[in-house]
Design a protein that fits this description.
This protein is α/β, with parallel strands linked by helices.
Length: about 200
Amino acid sequence: MSASPQLARLRLIVGLGNPGADYAKTRHNAGFWFCARLADDIGARLNYETRFKAIAGQAKAQNLWLLMPQTFMNRSGGPVRDLMQFYRITAAEMLVVHDELDLPPGRLQLRFGGGLGGHNGLKDITAQLGTQDYWRLRVGIGHPGDRNEVVNYVLKAPRVEEQTEIDTALDRALLSWPQLAEGNLEGAMKSLNTKPITQIRKELP
């Protein structure tokens, strides 16, 4: 795992998913869910940006861009690269939010760099940027138990109880946004990576 930069100031949040109504409620779109909710919370208006082939918006008060590539998961890197080049954003200033098979629903993990875990969105972003040294927020969706079922699993909606756990995890991530916005990523890591879901629920308003 790469060493995380101290007090990095985030300038870009990328939510990963697939475009279109057919995919909107599927597990693979957990990154889109977070990005849309964050935009509502911080007042960033999201619109389709032709030059980036993505839904994007800026929270000007925080000098922050939100991006949801509309090129399908395995081609996520192009829109990310294009926006980063246009606004001169470095990899260390980016947080990618994505679904994670290796974490159960309700769990989160914030980390800097590290492996790609077979995630096609991360693979393409890394290939386009030439580095995997960027922040990731892994949103647990659980694993079907059979690797041959992974594609079908991620492209289906979570069960009701799983969706509840995922939504609660996203609530916690949004509550930690002030830490992330201030550049206190190490503090956010301690909070998001270690707190059990039962404690998270008690802390929600």
